[in-house]
Amino acid sequence: MLPFERQQRIKALVQKHNSIKISELSKLLGVSEMTIHRDVKPFVEEGLVIKTFGGIAIPSQEKSLSLDTSACEMCHRPLDSRLSYKLIFHDQHTETFCCPHCGILRCHQTQEGDLLEALCRDFLTGTITSAAHATYVIDSTLDMQCCKPQVLCFEFQSHAEKFVRGFDGKICTYMQTKDYLLNHSGNTPSL
Ligand SMILES: [Zn+2]
Ligand SMILES: [Zn+2]
Predict the structure, then answer these.
(1) 33, 35, 74, 98: which is deepest, by most CB within 10 A?
(2) Does residue 176 form part of some domain?
(3) Residue 101 C-alpha to ligand 2 middle, in angstroms?
């Protein structure tokens, strides 16, 4: 296959799947990962695709986003960049979730030591931050139309405190949020 043909196939594949791993492309097209990297380089430069963890993806409307799937791994809702929550495993695979609610519950299911990192986005600034050290606000009155009980994530506790002054909610650490979700999820939300 000519490089040009291969690039057309790659383009078609990523458009079809929204995102695809370099290793998968290399297998599908029977060339080395190095070659795939070379093939996709112009696409990345043109902004046609974005690089993700080990692959490429069609950029979503929000450019800054580094999601590599289009639906939550837990509940299959479409991913909302502002709420998204990401788990990175030691074996390099990643899982993305619609919101901290799903992400934290999934975290709880993983085996001790499997997880390399859990990342979430600060609800106000969009900064990516470590989930373990973030501050969470549960059940605020600002309804983001995602999973209930609703969990929002903040990089700084002071921001979470300001937020609850306007929108109520309960300020929690990671562990408190996890306990709360384990006790409350699956139930219809009530006060
Ligand atoms: Zn979800
Ligand atoms: Zn959700």
Answers:
(1) 98
(2) yes
(3) 6
148, 107 Cβ separation under 8 angstroms:
no
**How remote is the CA of residue 74 from the centroid of ligand 1, in Å?**
5
Per-residue pLDDT of the chain (191 residues; tens, 9 = 90+): 888 999 999 999 998 888 999 999 999 999 999 999 999 999 988 888 888 889 999 876 544 444 445 799 999 998 877 899 999 998 888 999 999 999 999 999 998 889 999 999 999 999 999 999 999 999 999 999 999 999 999 999 999 999 999 999 999 999 999 999 999 876 444 43
Helix, strand or coil, per DSSP, at residue 156: coil
Which ligand lies nearest to the CA atom of residue 96 in the structure? 1
Closest listed residue to residue 89, CA positions, set 56, 124, 113: 113
| CATH assignment at residue 51 | 1.10.10
Asked if residue 114 belongs to a domain, the reply is yes
* Among the bound ligands, the one closest to the CA of 80: 2
Ligand 1 mean position to 75 CA, how many Å? 4
* Distance from residue 44's CA to the centre of ligand 2 (Å): 30
Residue 72 falls within a domain, yes or no? Answer: no
> What is the identity of the amino acid at 104?
I
